[in-house]
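Design review, sub-item: ligand-bound model
Attendees: FS, YL, KQ
YL presented the inputs for the LIBGGCMN complex:
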Amino acid sequence: MAVLLNGLRLVSSGNLSLHGIKSLQYKSTRILCQLPCKSSYQGRPFSNKNMTVELDNNTGVAVIQMKKPPVNSLSLEFLTEFAINMEKLEMDRECRGVVLTSSNPKIFSAGLDINEMYGKTPEHSGEFWRAVQEMWLKLYGSNMVTIAAINGSSPAGGCLMALACDYRIMADNPKYAIGLNETKLGIVAPFWFKDSMINVIGRRATEHSLQLGLMYSASNALKIGLVDQLVAQDKIMTHALSVMSEWLAIPDHARQITKSMMRKPTLDRLLTNRESDIQNFVNFISKDSIQKSLQLYLEMLKQRKS
Ligand SMILES: CCCCC/C=C\CCCC/C=C/C(=O)SCCNC(=O)CCNC(=O)[C@H](O)C(C)(C)COP(=O)(O)OP(=O)(O)OC[C@H]1O[C@@H](n2cnc3c(N)ncnc32)[C@H](O)[C@@H]1OP(=O)(O)O
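KQ shared the predicted structure:
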């Protein structure tokens, strides 16, 4: 297995990781021949519709800034774009870390786009759910250091994105909330959402949190370990980059193998049940009672505004 350490290509044997180290191998072998030449975007932002991605050549850190108005909801298009960007960065030897943040000063991400789950065909629902899975697999299984700079509220799928990172820094603002609130919408967080939360805050806190669909203020999120640090809003990016440099001081190969060892069982669980998870989602979301709940929730969101 090939790993990269400070620009050197190291070779080791073994089968430690599925999603982690295998994709690293992919990175070290394919990037040279199949990716567009790195110099085509190195050091410059490459802008997409729903996010900007800026890789700093000097530090090896990329910033993905989500910018889908109004609230960074995770639509099929957004998720597809996100997975492509993660794949590009993963295969770029220069990139060792990613900071995920939002251009909206109040909202990190509103979670899955509810419109993608309401009134859609089973085919569309299946395609959407595969894209949600892919986003999580890419983020949770990344070899890069991933830091969420949570500069606003982050319900449900937004919280999942943060949970999939290695470290979470949240803006210290009592108005911001984060959590897996699915039950409040009458839906159920799938097993890999639940696993992601257990791996961060533990089983008891997750059970409490999921059953009640709790959203935590920034300070309560810190208390239960859902986020690692609170920082003033205007310092969040500087702080995230400084934490990143601490993580990048660890040799990549050692950190990556350790990360993979910790995360492989959780990743494998989804990878081996991927198709049945999609089928479960499609069956569940197609039920009249669930569609009714989503309709009421969408109406409530619109009314709240007026
Ligand atoms: C047993 C087997 C189980 C198998 C699997 C089964 C089930 C599937 C599980 C699915 C897991 C779901 C995960 C999710 O992520 S569901 C989404 C959860 N998200 C939320 O509940 C957030 C709802 N939104 C809010 O709380 C707020 O909008 C806010 C994000 C805090 C922002 O507040 P504010 O700045 O005041 O903005 P507005 O509320 O005025 O919203 C602006 C417009 O954005 C629309 N909006 C908001 N969130 C969403 C969303 N998630 N999707 C789509 N659209 C959204 C909102 O309606 C406003 O639209 P308008 O301008 O047209 O009125």
